[in-house]
Amino acid sequence: MAYEKKNIRAVIEDINSRRIYLPAIQRKYVWDDEQITRLMDSIMLGYPIGTFLFWKVKKTIVNKKDYSMYEFIKDFHERDLYKNPAAPQPFPIGSEEETIWAVLDGQQRLTSLYIALQGSIGRKLSNKRWKNDDAFPKKELYFNLHSQRTDDEDISYEFKFLTTEDAQKQKDNKLWYLVKDILKYSQDELVTELIIPNGWATDKVAMKNTSLLHTRLVGDEIINYFEVEADSIDSVLDIFVRVNSGGIVLSKSDLLFSTIVSHWDKARDEIDKLLAEINKIGEGYKFSNDFIMRTCLYVLDMSVTLKVETFKKDSVLKIKDNWDAIRRAIKDTIDLLNEFGFNSENIISYVAVSPMVYYRFKGGIFYAESKSELRKYIVIAQVRQIFGAATNSALTSIREALKTAPSDAFKMSNLLNVRFTGERTLRYTSEEIDALFDTYEIGTYTFMLLSLLYPSLKYSQKGFHQDHMHPHTSFEEKKITGVVLPDGSVIDADRKDEWRRRRNTLANLQLLEGRENESKNATRLVDWLKVPENNENAKYLPSETSYELSNFEEFMEKRQKLMSDALKAILL
Asked: Can you tell me the distance from the alpha carbon of 426 to that of 428, in angstroms, rounded to the nearest whole number?
């Protein structure tokens, strides 16, 4: 094999002309915006951007052996278009010798260039909900023509994904140019049709950067590639694994996925379809190929250590033969997670879900008692961070315990004697439960513990928020200064700091439906409880206790006792 070279525009034209595809063994697109802009900076600097490896194969072979091929993503959308569209097959044949290229190495770089130079990106804004279409503004790649290279900065040439509106603002002496437009011009047209009409002939920096951008993308042959020819997917997979098994480009699960696809051609479509389905349940999740692959191995009582070289064809076929049952078990389990109130914002360990799928796959039924036990499991496994280290060992130990237990009834008692790395267990002591009230401040862990204390809420129907019973704002300096304590003394600085810490702990938290929480907001607890409905519905409310802020310490002590006793009844 010898190096071949092309310029970037020529490769983009090949993709547009349907001459380059992605084989099913490739993983999904995973690069972020910064990786793309750094790639563009490297191109502008004239740095090498690595070699590419293309599989040259006849269309007749692809059609005959029914190999799945995929097109490049053009307009990436984090929610709606994050996977590659399938290429229309069978391929139309112009001649027996007509070939295509399938990318074996360089997929992430080529996809990034294609998005940057032909398409757009829509990533979720952090302050908007996943189901809100406005949360994913369309952004295209722009280049600041006033970028000036310096030795002091990490980035020499400024590229950025912007909306059309943001690009037009032209703030801070930045002159944003839509990068994809540079591909329209030949070298002769660059000056007469772009630089002069825009008035950049007198702007030396803009003119220089425009010319350099055109040179790098249209003139220079930056794409260095090898071409391999093979008719067998097994031969191609061997090359693919050798190129990508260094542990940097692909994870073990990615290589496993590629191996599976080589033996079960429709695996990619099936897994993508399942992921799209389960990740849209409720408020949304972020399950991945890694979870699906590991769970397949797990429920079929195979080793969960992902090793491509030891993953035989008969194992892949076993997954294929059991796929419908595995898919149903996963879907049913994620529906249950949604019922428990979990989503991408409050689930910490996706690995912890696999034993739940195992129970369902083996014939387990989700009835009231088993649901209660499964809720306890998923909360405890995450709060105690069972899967924080030695994940495979933890999974295997739980599976062995489940094998010896009745398959139709999930009980935490069957798992309490399992020991994990670091002598951790799923068992709580009375002292450990008491310590929870000082260990965690408002966040994911407190939500999980509150979900045990509020099991009857309809989490899948309404969004529930963690609410401060004594409002967070009540502890602001202007409100807390001068508070007279039950003993007649005035609160001092040390006690103020201690109260501010404790306001975020479990004993001062409850779960309220989102709209109810917003209406309560900064209302003092004593005033909020004057509403009969609130008083009736408030849980773990100590009786014969003043709900004034001045009595905060007694309120916290008594409510902690009520909540701690309830957790002990659940967990011990």
From this structure: 7
How many angstroms separate the CA atoms of 191 and 206, rounded?
A: 12
> CB count, 10 Å around CB of 550?
14
Question: From CA 450, how far away is CA 534, in angstroms rounded?
Answer: 18
**Contact yes or no for 24/69 (Cβ under 8 A):** yes
The pTM score is: 0.67
How many CB atoms are closer than 10 A to CB 46? Answer: 11
Average pLDDT over residues 165-192: 90
Residue 546, φ and ψ in degrees, nearest 5: -75, 140
Whether 70 and 26 have beta carbons less than 8 Å apart is answered as yes
Tally the residues of the chain.
572
User: Is 80 exceeded by the pLDDT of residue 51?
Assistant: yes
Q: Is residue 512 classed as helix, strand or coil in its secondary structure?
A: strand
- Report pLDDT digits (tens) over 230-283: 777 667 766 776 666 543 445 555 666 777 777 787 888 899 899 999 999 999
**Rama region for 421: left / alpha / beta (φ>0; ψ in -120 to 50; rest):** beta
| C-beta atoms surrounding 303 within 10 Å | 13
Task: Give the H or E element holding residue 101.
Answer: strand 99-105
The dihedral of CA 439, 443, 444, 446: what is its sign?
A: positive
Question: Quick one: three-class SS letters along 401-466?
Answer: HHHCCCCCCCCHHHCCCCCEHHHECCCCCHHHHHHHHHHCECCHHHHHHHHHHCCCCCCCCCCEEE
Number of C-alpha atoms within 13 angstroms, CB side, residue 407?
8
Highest mean predicted confidence (pLDDT) among 123-127, 137-141, 147-151: 137-141
Instruction: Please state, as a whole number, how many other Cβ atoms lie within 10 Å of the Cβ of residue 115.
Output: 24
- Helix then strand then coil, % of the chain, to nearest 5: 50, 10, 40
DSSP strand pairing (20-23 vs 99-105): parallel
The Cα–Cα gap between 306 and 317 comes to 16
Going from the C-alpha of 77 to that of each of 80, 82, 124, 549, the distances in angstroms are 5, 6, 9, 48
In degrees to the nearest 10, what's the CA dihedral of 309, 311, 317, 318? 180
Mean pLDDT throughout 11-18? 95
Closest by CA to 503, choosing from 448, 545, 552, is: 552
Mean pLDDT for the stretch of residues 15-35: 89
Q: Using one digit for the tens of pLDDT, what is the confidence trace for 512-541?
A: 987 776 667 789 999 999 998 888 889 999
Structure confidence at residue 284 (pLDDT): 93
Nearest by Cα to 329 from 351, 352, 356, 347: 356
As given in the structure block, the two tokens for residue 396 are 């295997």
Examine the pLDDT at 25 and tell me if it is beyond 80: no
CA Rg value for the chain: 29
